[in-house]
Design brief:
The structure is a homodimer.
Chain A: E1 7-10, H1 15-26, E2 32-35, H2 45-55, H3 66-83, H4 89-95, H5 100-122, H6 134-148, H7 157-167, H8 170-174
Parallel strand pairs in A: 1-2
Helix pairs in contact in A: 1-2, 1-6, 3-5, 3-6, 6-7
């Protein structure tokens, strides 16, 4: 590693990579990006975020209270285990081009139906109360996926509100797919 | 919580996700009540209005404990770990904890969701076996490789961890879908060692309140 900086293997458009980029930005951790053109299957990025949380605890991405932590993890797992893997590149390849859009939309609406309901009990300004947490890092990239797959977000006012609030924060902007070293020129902000 | 104050686990005997949590409860000697949710009968009891109000994800497991209801097996297990820390299911060292979570996430995010009931329904009966086998072999190829660096007696070193709770139910799924385990000697060895432990036995699908008579141990 050059100068001991962490190295992130990242794909500009991968929602999984974006979650980790947000965490690194929030914690002001300087890192190097090695762009990869493969999209890895979802889910393992939460292990990275929890490691960052335990070794660089400021600012916190998980609340202190165990019950609130459970809600944060539940929401994060819902997205990273329940939605994203079902609409990732390798699965979409398997279902065939003519089925891809319907398949992805189904995965997302199914998950968002549940998430919108859960947020009724957990959300404040953000997914869980009023502090940015790991759940929020999962939410924004998943909403971006929803938009890419033309999912109607009208049935999800809470998800939409929280997404909008988060996108105004700097960490969510600097980490955005349109601002990465490997963002193609036509998609660059 | 029940009148007696015991936690309530909503579980299906055969659900690998439910099994993970049952193992955790057994390891931590937490006494609980089971409310079985049959994922197949009546069009799937997880779709009932009653259950959906309790767990909007319409999935098992869900655990009612300490006045809250938690869904998602790893979120449940991490809550149990933080509130009932003995015995530990995550090592102390942050790097080892990262390995445990990485392996757990690989299974719970990278394999199981791709071969669960609702996805298999969507791919259609004639494609189900191939689809499930592909999801599992893909994931097990990666896992066998990772275990070369992390495994001791168990998935990460020599203590049972959350990763092991995810491994055993996933191997059972692999067997159900007739996946050849020969390419995965480390996974097989660890699975065998774990199945000898009491917590993995009492929580086994063949010993649950809702296990059908013909499958009962």
């Amino acid at each position: 590693m050059q100068a001991g900086k962490p190295i992130l293997y990242s794909y500009f458009r991968s929602s999984c990579s974006w979650r980790v980029r947000i965490a690194l930005a929030l914690k002001s951790i300087d890192y190097e990006t090695i762009p990869i053109n493969l999209v890895k299957d979802g889910g393992q990025q939460l292990a990275i975020i929890e490691y960052l949380e335990e070794t660089r605890p400021t600012p916190q991405l998980l609340p202190q209270d165990p019950k609130k932590r459970a809600y944060v993890r539940m929401i994060s797992d819902l997205i990273t285990g329940g939605i994203q893997p079902l609409q990732n590149l390798s699965v979409l390849k398997q279902v065939g081009q003519e089925n891809q859009l319907t398949w992805a939309q189904k995965a997302i609406t199914s998950g968002f139906n549940a998430l919108e309901q859960i947020l009724q009990s957990t959300a404040g300004r953000y997914c869980v109360g009023d502090e940015v947490s790991m759940a929020d890092l999962c939410l924004v990239p998943q909403v971006a996926n929803a938009e890419r797959f033309k999912v109607d977000l009208m049935p999800y006012p809470t998800i939409s509100r929280i997404n909008k609030t988060l996108l105004a924060l700097e960490a969510f902007q600097v980490s955005h797919p349109c601002r990465q070293p490997d963002t193609p020129p036509e998609l660059r902000a």
